[in-house]
Design brief:
Number of strands: 13
Oligomer: single chain
Number of helices: 7
Shape: elongated
Length: 239
């Protein structure tokens, strides 16, 4: 199945220009063909091409279904972006393929990257959503200072911080995560979180966790945390 992305498909019955190009010029669809469209909000539509005019393709909706995420609790990754942007692009792509809900770039004391434009990450997330046959697009926040995020995260039921400092006791994430509740996992920069940031998170109720014995790169740690959530969900007998 090939999916096309049109966030306003129910009000504007046309494919966006880029999607039209792929549909018509690459895949050679013609009026009368049926295609699959997702809106990024959880809905998948079976549509019929009715007209191709210039750079936009007109469609009519034939059928619709809501595609519920296959994981229970919401999964948020708050990650300090790496110096090399391609590693963050890779991370967002893989997280979207696996399945998650929200990506928050964190500005930390030891952050190698102080600014981040999210437009490219959003495009990568759209492509990964379509490729992995999902219908919900994960939210990608702008760069958020660590202190502000801690203050704004108090309502998330499960809050975890992963870091390398062995002086503070940590528990294995796989033994702490509850798949029925929303969760956020903090992943630090190449230089890890500062002692002040760790103390701030712990004071705010974040649980200190370890992702295993190996020392992981930032993007690897975030991916391991997300996959751990899914593995626990797959092996849990829900009522």
């Amino acid at each position: 199945m090939i999916q096309f992305f049109a966030p306003d498909i129910t009000t504007d019955h046309r494919l966006p220009e880029q999607e039209t190009s792929h549909c018509v010029k690459v895949l050679r669809h013609v009026p009368g063909d049926e295609i699959t469209v997702v809106d990024g909000k959880g809905w998948r539509y079976r549509c019929r091409l009715t007209e191709i005019a210039g750079k936009r393709a007109e469609v009519e909706i034939v059928d619709e279904e809501f595609v519920k995420p296959y994981w229970r609790g919401g999964i948020t990754l708050a990650v300090a972006p790496t110096k090399h942007l391609d590693r963050m692009e890779w991370l967002v792509e893989k997280l979207t393929e696996i399945g998650f809900d929200r990506f928050i770039p964190l500005l930390c004391r030891y952050s190698e990257r102080k600014e981040l434009k999210t437009e490219r990450l959003e495009k990568i997330a759209v492509s990964a959503m379509k490729q992995s046959l999902k219908a919900t697009l994960p939210a990608i926040d702008p760069m958020t200072p660590f202190k502000r995020f801690i203050a704004e995260s108090v309502r998330i039921p499960q809050r975890f911080i992963a870091y390398c400092d062995p002086s503070v006791p940590r528990r294995l994430f796989c033994n702490e995560y509850n798949p029925l509740k929303d969760a956020v996992i903090l992943i630090g920069p190449e230089g890890d979180f500062s002692p002040d940031e760790i103390a701030m998170a712990l004071d705010a109720g974040f649980a200190p966790i370890s992702l295993g014995e190996a020392r992981l790169r930032t993007e690897t740690a975030a991916l391991v945390a997300c996959q751990t959530c899914h593995t626990i969900q797959l092996t849990t007998d829900f009522p």
